[in-house]
Amino acid sequence: MTMRAAKEKLSPHLSGSGISGIILVHPYFWSKTPVDDKDTTDVTTRSRSETLWRIASPNSKDGVDDPFINVVQAESVDISGLGCRKVLVMVAELDLLVRQDWCYAAKLERSGWKGEVEVMETEGEKHVFHLKNPDTEKAHELVKKFASFIKG
């Protein structure tokens, strides 16, 4: 969305895209091959993620190597024009997607993008833990960081 906003200028009276920042909470990035040596190589787990993507995007001819989900490894995805000044990537240590999410932040930093990227990792938690257990201390910490980022 912020890539498109940067290209299309949401409003002529705004400078840039008009978006100051974005928050990615446990983003769903994936690829056919592991992004690094810490990413899961378990065939069953990887297959399950591929099946979920086929359900979400049945017309994708590239499967999980579609640039919409394989933002990290897809060479066709240039994120240097991200239309905001700051990005917060929230990851959960035990999330299957954690390596993809860390690698997204690293790709953004290397891309030449002129903004600031921050990663918040919650230790000992899985994907979207804050939705499943919203009354825990770690869920409250996530929400506080989310609010703090918005306040600037």
From TrEMBL:
Q: What Gene3D superfamilies does the database record attribute to this sequence?
A: alpha/beta hydrolase
Q: What highest taxon heads this organism's lineage?
A: Eukaryota
**What positions does the domain Alpha/beta hydrolase fold-3 occupy?**
2-130
- For this protein, what is any one GO molecular function term? hydrolase activity
| Protein's name according to its UniProt entry | Alpha/beta hydrolase fold-3 domain-containing protein
What protein family does this chain belong to? Belongs to the 'GDXG' lipolytic enzyme family.
Instruction: Name its species.
Output: Brassica oleracea var. oleracea
